[in-house]
Amino acid sequence: MDPFAALGDPVRRDLVARLSRAPARVVDLAADQAISRPAVSRHLRLLAEAGLVVAEDRGRERHYRLQPSGLDPVTDWLAGLEPPARFAASALDGLDLEVRRTTRERSADRAADRSTHTTTEETA
Amino acid sequence: MDPFAALGDPVRRDLVARLSRAPARVVDLAADQAISRPAVSRHLRLLAEAGLVVAEDRGRERHYRLQPSGLDPVTDWLAGLEPPARFAASALDGLDLEVRRTTRERSADRAADRSTHTTTEETA
DNA sequence: CGAATAGGTAACCGATAGGTTACCAATGAG
DNA sequence: CTCATTGGTAACCTATCGGTTACCTATTCG
């Protein structure tokens, strides 16, 4: 499932937002969702397939964390829209300073991410 | 249908991208889609309900155009993610200059948009 | 060891998405 | 006026989504 479709579901958006704040275990994620744990589990699998989150097994627990690069297709698509639409992208105005400040670190982060980690990603 | 779900469909994304370049009639939009015109028509209705496009009747033709503000929920959500995720938002880096340059005009544009136009929007 | 906890998977089910064809109303052109 | 063009709507069908319950495995803890 592509990132766009993945973010089409409000529960999955909520999970992503939650994970953007901190990694979490499945039970904890399921705790503040109105649906059953298996349902959350499946949403997480989809998010992993979409490249938006990564799972890491720690003993009997599975910790999910956000994979920021998974959002690239979305931001890229928005960025690819013609000028008239880009006006809307300026909703990110408030972030300009911070984002630009962190750009260099982020490139390094992404590179490291691809090489060192051996975390799950597909098999949720 | 909310903008996220609306953009979850590749055909609709394509329509939005197309309309970001220029307004167009339904036939023209349907022309370069692999699906039937009624199907495109329904996609357009959904996009209008999501606030992403606006329709304007001109004689027997209906011209659809992009409504940039419809993307705000998306960019806002992305902007609302915690720092780690914002790194991905820097995919918009290349746009920073242009976006900031046009910010003022855009505010004016949005304001004008809400008051003067009386175009359709819901009834596709 | 045995019990509890974490979490994935399977089977099932109702609702919805998205496609098609057929049809209709309205406008514009010859 | 007549006919072609534009485009929405309805009815229908299939596939997929998202939820549930039931079940199983693996790890940790007393």
Q: Mind explaining what this structure looks like?
A:
Two copies of one chain form a homodimer. Chain A has 124 residues and is mainly α. The first copy, chain A, has one domain (3-116): Winged helix-like DNA-binding domain superfamily/Winged helix DNA-binding domain (Arc Repressor Mutant, subunit A, Orthogonal Bundle), CATH 1.10.10.10. Helices cover 58% and strands 11% of the residues of chain A. Chain A has seven helices and three strands. The first copy, chain A, has a three-stranded antiparallel β-sheet. In chain A, helix 2 (10-21) packs across helix 4. The first copy, chain A, is elongated. The model of chain A is unreliable at 93-124 (pLDDT under 50). The interface between A and B is large, with 50 and 50 residues. Chain A binds a DNA duplex (30 and 30 nucleotides) through helix 3 and helix 4. Chains A, B: It comes from Nocardioides astragali. Chains A, B: This is ArsR/SmtB family transcription factor. Chains A, B: Residues 1-86 form the HTH arsR-type domain.
Q: How many beta-strand segments of chain A? A: 3
Profile the largest sheet of chain A: 3 strands, antiparallel
Instruction: Name the CATH superfamily assignment of chain A.
Output: Winged helix-like DNA-binding domain superfamily/Winged helix DNA-binding domain
CATH top level class name of chain A: Mainly Alpha
CATH architecture of chain A, please? Answer: Orthogonal Bundle
Q: How many angstroms does the end-to-end distance of chain A come to?
A: 14 Å
